[in-house]
Fold this protein.
Amino acid sequence: LARVKTVHAATETTAVDLLKNANPVALVVPYTGVRQYNDVVQGAAQVMSFVNTGTQAPTLASVTSTLAPATDQTLFITGFPGATQAVYLADVNLPAPSNAAFVRIVNASSGGGPITVTSTASVVPMVTGLASPTASGYNILPAGTYTFRFTNTATGAPVVTPDPVITLTSPQTSSIYLIGPGTGLAAVVTQDF
């Protein structure tokens, strides 16, 4: 089996269902909502489609992906009505080293510009110029509580306010999704392992 996590980041869109080859995987995922991993049968060329909750059509967005055995992936929907897209991410399903945590940043904003991410772990940015809809690699941080700052790469203006305080525990692997229209984003934390 493979596992699929679902994240709804499509601005101005009602709750969605995720279907695999027209069969339900995750149902009634609200905007900014996350459905943790669901087991699915692995296979090549699987059509993963987002639809409005309770319908089979029209498809809001879809992506074809290979679901390999014993792997984890996240599918998220982003964009504005009429211009939504589905995005597939391969997740790390391994624990971080002792006394550390893995964290990845996902810019799932609808129409937002590239972002820069810093944390109280270092004055050096963790990520610079992360465009939507893409994800950084996993960064390793010592386990602890951090204040994260998310800014527009071009202007330096904050895109999430106030700066979120996030606790990362060992051996946790997490993703932080930035969800919303361009400015005024929300930071949604999910656990990958």
Remarks:
- Residues 22 and 56 are 7 Å apart (CA to CA).
